Amino acid sequence: MTTAHEVRAYPFSEPDRLTLDPTYARLRTQEPLSRVQFPLGEPAWLATRYHDVRTVLADPRFSRALAKTRDQPRTHPDEHLDDGLVGMDAPDHARLRKLVARAFTGRRVELMRADTERIVEGLADTMVEQGGPFEMVENFAIPVPVTVISEMLGVPAADRPQLRGWSEAMVSTTALPWEEMERNAKELFAYIGTLVAERRRNPTEDLLGALVKTRDEDGDRLSEEELVMHVTGGLLITGTETTASQIPNFLYALLSHRDQWELLCAHPELVPRAVEELVRWIPLNYSAMFARYALEDVQFGDVTVKAGEPVLGSVASANRDPEIFEDPDRLDLTREHNPHIGFGHGPHHCLGAQLARMELQSVLSTLITRFPTLDFADGEDGVIWKQGMLVRGPKKLRVVW
Amino acid sequence: MSRWAIAVDRTVCIGASVCANYAPEHFELRAGKSHPRVATTDPDEAVLDTAETCPVSAITVHDTDSGALLAPEE
Fold it and tell me: What domain count does chain B have?
């Protein structure tokens, strides 16, 4: 590459509800690999086209683990960003991921569907009892994933509200001071330590019990730090905040596209497809994150990413690439061809994707069946949004029906 | 020694390429979906791990002698 690339400040703008900054569309056409400068870390390449983003995420010529040794591009000084599976390459990554992956396969998740539906129906009963206006984030969206992942891991019901607080703090970017995030991380890991100790005394059949057993019988496969921080801590955080944010994001998207809500109410069989389309259309992450470092020179069109340089792939931009998706900015629940990468791609493809799909399907099915007249209580503009988090989502969304 | 048969259900595969990353000698992506590079292989723990790790359980491993399903675990 001979011409110098303009280095753009990134993220391009502050998050604004669920809108995607128009710069992505421009870059896809004019400069598919561009130079960006995050608030922290070294300058990086940003990939915006679908195929390029998939290459960045899946090609073994790119490493996640290398990021630990570098001043990696990031939005805030989170030293825990690379804790856990997302900071690893094969073979360490494969060794740890497989210990938990079997609990999250489609088949295992199907066995949890009936229980999840019961949890969701119970929350819908509460809506009916309390009547509208009903605040959906605290009272509906958060309890669903927190209850599901807690039951999987074996977190007692009384501890779950605290768990949710820790989880939220860990994905905060500027919403909380750095020291506050650190304190929350320490508390969460200390808490997991007590759960682990309990299972050493009294073995359990839940996922955490199984992990403790693996750790104690075969210490080479799982260290104590990996057990507490990387695996269990990672599952609790990623298993709650993302789904807890997507549920009100789904509601916002559907209620602000009333025709799509009505369509879904009339055709409940569209629910699985609707979940895929909403995951595609909603730019859940506020920005591209988790830089990959090139292990050798990699060519993207006329741009060479040199060995040792960081690249980020924008999933949100890839999911709006008109080369792949017809009329990509349109939310279309009937979309048939939808190979979105909303759950990522490659070795770090969301471990909990099938679980998230099942939870989101249960939520949509229940809401359209029981509350077809659902609407914003305070209008579309009355929704209050989270600020300074890694993922977008309403902080308060009140509904009536 | 028995051999293991590897199969990928391409109607289920979403092309996440977890397998091609974990066991590149056994799996590759063709037209966006996973494809076993070999129909059978000598027993190799990495193949079982990969089958267990597939996000949509599209990979199955059978023992060619006994026909027993080795992965994913039921």
Answer: 1
